[in-house]
Amino acid sequence: MGEPDLSNLTALQVGETLSLPPPRKDGPMSVEAAIARRRSIRDYARSPIPLEAISQLLWSAAGITGSGFMRAAPSAGACYPLEVYLACEQGLFHYIPQRHALVKVQAQDIRQALCDAAWGQEFVAAAAVSLIFAAVYERTTARYGERGIRYVHMDVGHAAENVHLQAEALGLGSVPVGAFDDKAVEDVLRLPAEQKPIYIVPVGVKREG
What we know:
This protein has 209 residues and is α+β, with helices and mostly antiparallel strands. Helix content is 35%, strand content 23%.
């Protein structure tokens, strides 16, 4: 990874969009090696990560990988109910898969508030970034009825595992977080009423030793 120059994220004003670096489609670590090495990491150095790494993580979560806007993770009926947010020192950002871009939605660093909403799990505040997955259940239940709720939860599992494996391939650590106060996270992110938070993935530089 290169040096973590995140000045573009800092300079971005709320409501403005930043195109991310193109995602890399190959790398030095095999899928098998990433699976074998992946562990839940909760101890992070308080260090930023490069924009290129952020680009890879977001693309792995929900990026466009083929014609017809097919994405990196499968979705039941191609309903794509997930919205992905990025929390980091530079603020809160909403990922736009169709443009592989970030829209700044809050200027302040919300990581400590997100940590508090996650019942004080300190690694949420310490990690360089957290990816937060929110679901618009109606996109899937409109097609599949009540069973669509199950499909949404399967969808986020697919997407989050991509992130965990991508983090390992980048030499970073990640951990799945499902323990949080839903309403508190909604308030911290100022989510639209139809979006419900269902998964947080902190990602950061592994602390040595």
